[in-house]
Design brief:
Helix content: over 70%
Pathway: Cell wall biogenesis; peptidoglycan biosynthesis
Radius of gyration: 21 Å
Distance between the termini: 37 Å
Number of helices: 14
Membrane topology: Multi-pass membrane protein
EC number: 2.4.99.28
Number of domains: 1
Structural class: mainly alpha
Keywords: Cell cycle, Cell division, Cell membrane, Cell shape, Cell wall biogenesis/degradation, Glycosyltransferase, Membrane, Peptidoglycan synthesis, Transferase, Transmembrane, Transmembrane helix
Number of strands: 2
Subcellular location: Cell membrane
Oligomer: single chain
Strand order of the largest sheet: 1-2
Largest sheet: 2 strands, antiparallel
Order of helices and strands: HHHHEEHHHHHHHHHH
């Protein structure tokens, strides 16, 4: 038992961190281990690997992810800002290197191999981008004379331009939605709402006209007979087969032929083997994590803490919503992982970094520390 009287960094962390939120995140990670074991062996077997290749790697990536999550949750808001600046700069460099030297797969360059590890730099950029945008919006509210909002716009355009060059329109849409949500929370004018909505619609229309890959996905979504819809059709069949309580662990049919059953369509495997009841439980868990973070964020008097925690929660929730919506054929197919459930090392470590910052920002801090944060808020 950890005593409140102990004045060690760990004891202070333990009594100030949101332990309920931490438990929910660990439960989600454990669910990911179970679903990886259920979904990945057929995929590995089909491509000639050991049946537990992806499962073993999923568990392997879980260890550094937990270390990152816990380690980052010890940081102060000022340390979070400074760390995010370094991580974002590193991510931008890696994205540029990926564009120049990364292998082209299915018409896009999204991965680069460093020291034998495949890295998706766009995943690393997301949580650090949210922190920097939140800091700029908080500075704009504190000091109206500072062009912080314009700087946040430049930051968005820089990252979005690099993502479009890959191209990675799924991440572009996610980043833009989270930035827009932060801008809304920061109190943007109504005219900006219409302007940004129009710009987003214009960008989507331009992508539809100029990028065959995007046009094909939208056309297949609107008219399934216009192209190959094998994966989404199999996902729908998995939901139908699983009904409320599923076929049972290991009894799934769709995963035997779904190429991305361990990544983009792991939610469909969960539905077929464990039923809609488990899917609703996962949805409730994601919703709880987002709402719990938002509720604690809005109890903070520090604008940066409020904006940053809210932005990270929205990033986490929207990414989960996009993945589940694709599985349910509610939106066109996109390559978006389900947080901590889908296979993917870059995604898992990046998510751990993001939720670690969520835990750090929602810790209960003495009023004296809060006052110090506010007094130093305009300095990185």
């Amino acid at each position: 038992m950890i005593s409140r009287e102990q004045r060690t960094p760990f004891s202070e962390w333990w009594w100030t961190v949101d332990r309920v939120l931490l438990a929910a995140l660990i439960a989600l990670m454990l669910a990911g281990v179970i679903l990886s074991l259920a979904a990945s062996p057929p995929v590995a077997t089909r491509i000639g690997l050991d049946p537990f290749h992806f499962f073993n790697r999923h568990v392997l990536f879980l260890a550094p992810s937990l270390i990152v999550l816990i380690g980052v949750s010890f940081l102060s808001p000022r340390q979070i800002r400074r760390t995010a600046l370094i991580v974002f700069a590193l991510a931008i460099v890696l994205i540029v290197v990926t564009l120049l030297f990364g292998p082209e797969v299915k018409g896009s360059r999204r991965w680069i191999t460093l020291l034998g590890v495949n890295i998706q730099a766009s995943e690393i950029a997301k949580p650090s981008f949210v922190i920097l945008a939140a800091w700029l919006f908080s500075e704009a509210a504190r000091r109206p004379e500072m062009p912080a909002t314009s700087m946040a716009m430049v930051l968005l355009l820089m990252l979005v331009s690099l993502l479009v060059m890959m191209p990675d329109f799924g991440q572009t849409m996610l980043i833009t939605m989270v930035w827009g949500a932060l801008f809304f929370i920061a109190g943007m004018r109504v005219i900006w709402v219409f302007g940004l909505t129009g710009a987003a619609a214009g960008g989507l229309f331009a992508a539809y006209l100029l990028v065959p890959h995007v046009a094909g996905r939208i056309k297949r979504f609107m008219n399934p007979a216009s192209g190959d819809t094998f994966q989404v059709d199999m996902a729908s069949e998995a939901f139908s087969n699983g009904s409320w309580f599923g076929l049972g662990p290991g009894e799934g049919i769709a995963k035997r032929s779904l190429p991305d059953s361990h990544t983009d369509f792991v939610f469909a495997v969960a539905a077929e083997e464990f039923g809609i009841v488990l899917c609703l439980a996962l949805l409730a868990l994601f919703s709880f994590i987002v709402l719990r973070t938002l509720s604690r964020a809005y109890k903070s008097d520090d604008l940066f803490t409020r904006f940053a925690a809210s932005g990270l929660a929205i990033l986490f929730g929207v990414q989960a919503a996009i993945n589940m919506s694709v599985n349910l054929q509610l939106i066109p197919a996109k390559g978006m992982t389900l947080p901590f459930i889908s296979y993917g090392g870059s995604s898992m470590v990046s998510l751990a970094y993001g939720v670690g910052m969520m835990l750090a920002l929602t810790r209960q801090r003495p009023q004296t520390e809060v006052n110090a944060i506010e007094a130093a808020g305009s300095y990185a």
